[in-house]
């Protein structure tokens, strides 16, 4: 937290009077030294962690607000860090590092520790942030596949949203499989991760002069020409597990490591401990084109599954001379002929495992190979053996995407202080773009083809367009309670989320979950003969109070879509209007097309308000009730 991204700024006035928080001092965290008119709050919560599983907060992780892991620093600086010139990771990604909302102030609430996050600590952190008067909460925490009433993030976020606080979360990093998205509550803003137009290429030159391209942020001296090359599976461990590699054989060689079992960084460390000269880390087969730039402790390069297979084939088929390779590290490349953005393979996907009628993730933002401030209390690799310390690090994570969206939400909150969290989410979703730099639908690194709304949500966030979206789809606490009743929750289960002592009579609120006023349409067909109808309320927030919007439908293949009425005529007295959209399956072949996608666009000539349509054939048994 002593990074330049959080330095005091003479251009920032004192915090608003509505903010009631502050910084807590401990022997390891001197609040007067760390906190200022930029970092205006710093608190920590640990009692649940120590009580729940008999864990003890160790000295290395500091029983204080101090970020000893690096994740909080990365998130805070990406969302709202001040501009820092000449930022880089050992020269990689060099430039000015700026958070999305550099004029915003930051309050940090530390609730997670080495062995995880206790639910009670997470809830205490949420409650404290709410009481302190924050405007936006960035909560990129992993979640379990549990009902909303058992999910501390969902419970805490519900309390925040009902107070007008937007909560931004991450979809998590379990992609590219379906139903992997987490943090799927409709009251939170859930971000998936995508690339930017920056790469860190490295060339692998094999002994037969075949050249393969990977990704690396190695910062040390270059490798010598043609070093002996071995496959981890031939020397003790295909995944390059610590202690399993034969040091006698590995010494002085480059080792090819398969994905799985341990982390990429652990693989590099294992090779180094065995005396290896370098590592080539293969990716998962289902990750397709995604490779990873990681802060390895030795010369290392990440390659696709296909490239790793080619290298292993070369090793198998080469007897004389001995298999060999070298790696040429090429630094930072902007553009490079590859379209951007592209969806990260690791970014978790929909449909929602709880309520597939709610599209998740909501939106995508940069989360691949992003540069952000990093804690000086941890190494860039996170490995204990790594003694390096850096001011900035390069990270792949939906957490980074979440932080980008959070900062943009803060900007919207500044422009539209009267907007609800749902209105802010709606503006971000309906103005998102879906074409990449080549003019094609945003691609998916896992397949190489076009991504779908189950990966990218409504599209890539577009801050400038979101300021003036034309229409918004709003929702309030009562709407979320109705949603909870619609998915079958009892009054007792709803009460866990509302936390206000009220008793909800769900018998009077049972409805169709697809009617929740969401800025997207996710349709589930249980029967090939049944049409599905959903209702929406759109509110005019454009510059003209009197205007007429017309619906333009791009129907998903195999589905007939109608909108009634096809036009919405807004006026000073009719600022909010309802419409009904009906989806009828036509020639649906579930054996080849379980999903189909389209969109509906409302336009008055000036604004284009776009909602994605995701249609799924999901027999009842396929969706768990949670």
From TrEMBL:
Name of this chain's protein: Subtilisin-like protease
Q: Which keywords describe this protein according to UniProt? A: Hydrolase, Protease, Serine protease, Signal
Single annotated GO MF: serine-type peptidase activity
Q: Which residues form a coiled coil?
A: none
Q: What is one GO biological process annotated to this record?
A: proteolysis
User: Which Pfam families is this protein grouped with?
Assistant: fn3_6, PA, Peptidase_S8
Q: Family per UniProt? A: Belongs to the peptidase S8 family.
InterPro entries assigned: PA_domain, Peptidase_S8/S53_dom, Peptidase_S8/S53_dom_sf, SBT, Subtilisin-like_FN3
What PANTHER family does the database record attribute to this sequence?
PROPROTEIN CONVERTASE SUBTILISIN/KEXIN
Q: Where in the numbering of this chain does the Subtilisin-like protease fibronectin type-III domain appear?
A: 516-615
- Give the superkingdom in one word: Eukaryota
Residue ranges occupied by any PA domain in the UniProt entry: 227-311
